[in-house]
Every structure is written in structure tokens, then in C-alpha cells.
Amino acid sequence: MLDYTNAALVIDRASGPLSGNAAWKSPSNIAIIKYWGKHGLQLPKNASISFTLTNAHTKTNIQYGPKSTKSKEVQLSFFFEEKAKPAFHPKILQFIERVKDIFPFLYELDLEIHSSNSFPHSAGIASSASSMSALALCFCSMEQQLFGTLPDRDAFLKKASYVARLGSGSACRSVFPSASVWGQHTDIPGSDDEYGIGVEEQLHKVFHSFRDDILIISQSEKEVSSTLGHALMDSNLFAEQRFLQAEKNMSALLPAFKEGDLERFGEIAEAEALSLHALMMTSTPSFILMAPNSLEAINRIRRFRRETQLPVYFTLDAGPNIHLLYPSDIEKQISIFKKEQLEELCEGNRILDDQAGPGPEKINL
Questions:
Q1: pTM, whole model, 2 decimals?
Q2: Is the dihedral of CA 218, 224, 226, 227 positive or negative?
Q3: Strand-by-strand arrangement of the 211-215 sheet
Q4: Are strands 20-33 and 361-362 parallel, antiparallel or unpaired?
């Protein structure tokens, strides 16, 4: 097990200026093999693999300076979309509490956090993945700025992934380009439950710029949080079978990724998405996050695929919004399909065009 605890990361106030900022743009990701159910402190019951997105991202800037009070509590102000959001404080404070032994210096500073999303939060587009990975990257940058302890890029990203997991499990997959695996799996050397690993080199070139257009079926905040959904897996009668299914699907997906087998990829992606939502419907209490237009979009995608023989598929995260998956070389045909058949199913006709991308980006202010 990794141990990033470091009591030495305490600020020497005589060593120099304590003010600065750390800013990152970190993407959301879309899991193809889903993880649903966890144990311990944010550890997954099965391995997952995801595409790292490009346009669906969070930008976070932490401005920090010497603590203005003698309080032992974290001094924090948080602004989302340039508006004070004290309602977000508990989740951020919980995250900081989980990493206090990793970054003890956070308790010695005043923190002003500014964050913004390119997409609706809490609507099932993994906003926690992008937001918590952005915070983790900022914390690691602050450590490097104050102590110079993370000059190596690989070590930096590994630690950022580990830390991001403590805020949101799926966030640990957002710090790598193209695609990432989180969770131990016998077919994936180096895979681990405590952090994600990049697997870009294991993808056929068709997947490096794979399209993922998000149909915004609803921008409303979902009624059941992912945290509660994961917890309900503890009593789900189908849980153990699901974990075995996920392991087998991962073993089947890996060669499809390497060989560029789009049909096999699509079969697994769609089966995984529907399994995820079936688990929600069979929880106690049960819940449904898909909307009527989610189902209609799925039916139209399947009908379009049958009629055109084009490799276009779907997946969903824990929400109603549909992710449209296809290779970039058929973008023109899919653009017409979206305009003629899918836009009308979306709230405000909104579709967020996206694709597998280069991973997070440090912002120089």
C-alpha cells in the first residue's frame, strides 16, 4: 500500500513568501467498464476503464496565503462560477480532512478556491471526477511550489491520482490522457485499487480521438447521488454477479481496444451501461436515473446503427444523459443524425461535443 503521509510538509514561516496560486483544468471521464460499489476508503469492488474527455472539464484556481487567524480549522472560501457557494464547503472540507496527513500545510494557509465547469454539475456527467481531480492536481502543485518535492511528472500524476481518489473514486482516472484504468485486474500489469494508471499505449489509434458527444437529456441535479448509489450495492442481491461480470467484460474489452474492434467495443460499452442502470433499479430502495428521452435516444441510436451499419454506440453514467460513442472519421454522418433525430430529445437542444483527449492541463496565471 502507498503511504503519502508526510508530517515534514509543514511550512517554515521564515523560509520565504507563503502566497501563491495553483490552477488546473481537469477533464471529466466516461467509464466504459463501470465501477459501482466500493469498500474501505474509496476503494473499488471491480476494475474500471474510461476515456478521458476534452471539452467536459473543470477549471480550478487556488489562491493561498498566510493564515489570518490562529484557528486550527481549515480557512476556506469557495466560489463556483464566480459566486460564493458555502453549500459546497462540506464536501471540500471532507476531502481536505481525508488528505490532512498528506498535505498538512493546507491547515496553515488561507485558501480561496475558484472553480467553474463547462457542463452541468450533479447531472450524471462525472462532475466530481473533474472537480476533485482538479483540486488534487492543485494540491500537488502547491506542494511542489512550497517544498519542491514533486519535480518528476510521473510521480506527480501518480500522487495526484491517489489523492483524487480520496475525493471521488472516478476522479483518479481523470489525470491521464486518452484512457485510464482504476482497480486491480489480472490482465492489466500495474493496475491498482489505490490509483489509476494511463493505458493510452494499449489503445488502437482509432480510439485516441474517439468521439463522445453528450446528449444533455436533463440538466437537473439527479435525485440520488452516486455516493448513495454505491452504498446501496452493499445489499444488492446481484452485486457479486455484477463484480464477476465487470471482470469478464474488462478481459473481453482489452483486446478490442488493442485491435480496434469497434463492434465488440460497442457491444460491451452498451451492456455495461445498461447493467449499471439495472443495478440502480434492483437496489433497495430502487431508483431510476434514466428519463423517457434517455430511452428514446437509445432506441433511435440502435435503429440508426441498423439502418446505416455505422459504428455508433451509447453509454451512460449515473444519470439520464446519453454519451454517443463513435470514431472521428464518421463525424459528418453523425452530425446530421444528431441534428435530425437527437437534438429534439435534449434539454434546450443541447449536445456537448467531446472526444478522448490529452488529459489535464496546468494553467499559468
A1: 0.95
A2: positive
A3: 313-316, 322-326, 211-215, 351-352
A4: antiparallel
Cell of 15: 523560509
Residues 6+ apart with CB under 8 A from 329: none
**Cα separations (Å) of 136 from 55, 98, 142, 145?**
19, 12, 10, 14
Looking at residue 135, what DSSP letter applies? H
Q: What is the pLDDT of residues 28-81, one digit of tens each?
A: 999 999 999 999 999 999 999 999 999 999 999 999 998 888 888 898 999 999
Residue 121: band (very low, low, confident or very high) from pLDDT cuts 50, 70, 90? low
Q: Do the domains at 20-202 and 207-352 have one common CATH topology?
A: no
20-202: CATH topology: Ribosomal Protein S5; domain 2 (3.30.230)
Average pLDDT of 21-27? 97
**What are the residue boundaries of the structural domains of the chain, listed by start?**
20-202, 207-352
Say which CATH architecture domain 207-352 belongs to. 2-Layer Sandwich (3.30)
C-alpha distances in Å from residue 200, one per residue of 159, 187, 203, 241: 19, 16, 6, 29
* Strand pairing report for 351-352 and 48-66: unpaired
At 134-151, the pLDDT tens digits run: 999 999 999 999 999 999
